[in-house]
Design brief:
The protein is an alpha+beta fold. Helix content is 38%, strand content 29%. The protein has 2 domains: 34 residues; 116 residues, Nucleic acid-binding proteins (OB fold (Dihydrolipoamide Acetyltransferase, E2P)), CATH 2.40.50.140. It is built from 3 helices and 7 strands, in the order αβαββββββα. The chain is elongated.
């Protein structure tokens, strides 16, 4: 091979290697920042991963909020009208957080309890996260279908 052709080959190999490293690092960064969404029904059915960060959405179950006297810990349950999941959160809840309202929580599943690191409440009475609204709609459809089959 001539020297000029050899030099071009090394340059192409170096560019391909550099591009491969850049793409690999980008994919690793994106994978760490992806927040999956699961409904309470999917979590109870065992479809959600243990120890991996994801979001859960639904309505706060009435009479389920229990606040700790010692610290900022709060326990409550989130439902999609079919099934509910207990949630543990330590921190200051949003002002709009209350029973019967829609919430989205980010955290990890620890056994059967969802340990939230962040809780977001809907900002007015008409808004609900699209994923949570769809989950509630699907859960209601499944309940009605099960009721019709049992009759």
């Amino acid at each position: 091979m001539r020297a000029k052709r050899k030099q071009r080959l090394y340059l192409v190999i170096l560019l391909v290697a550099g591009l491969s490293v850049a793409v690999g690092l980008t994919l690793m960064a994106l994978q760490q920042n992806i927040n999956l969404f699961f409904t309470p029904t999917q979590i109870v059915d065992g479809k959600a991963p243990q120890g991996v960060a994801f979001r859960i959405g639904g309505m706060v179950v009435d009479d389920s909020v229990k606040r700790s006297d010692q610290d900022l810990s709060v326990q409550f349950a989130i439902t999609d009208t079919a099934k509910s999941v207990p949630v543990l959160y330590t921190g200051i809840l949003p002002d709009l957080f209350r029973e019967g309202q829609g919430v989205v929580a980010l955290g990890r599943l620890d056994g059967k309890t969802f340990v939230a690191s962040e809780v977001l409440a809907k900002h007015d009475e008409n808004y609900m996260a699209p994923e949570a609204a769809e989950a509630i709609k699907q859960a209601n459809a499944q309940m009605y279908k099960a009721q019709e089959e049992s009759q």
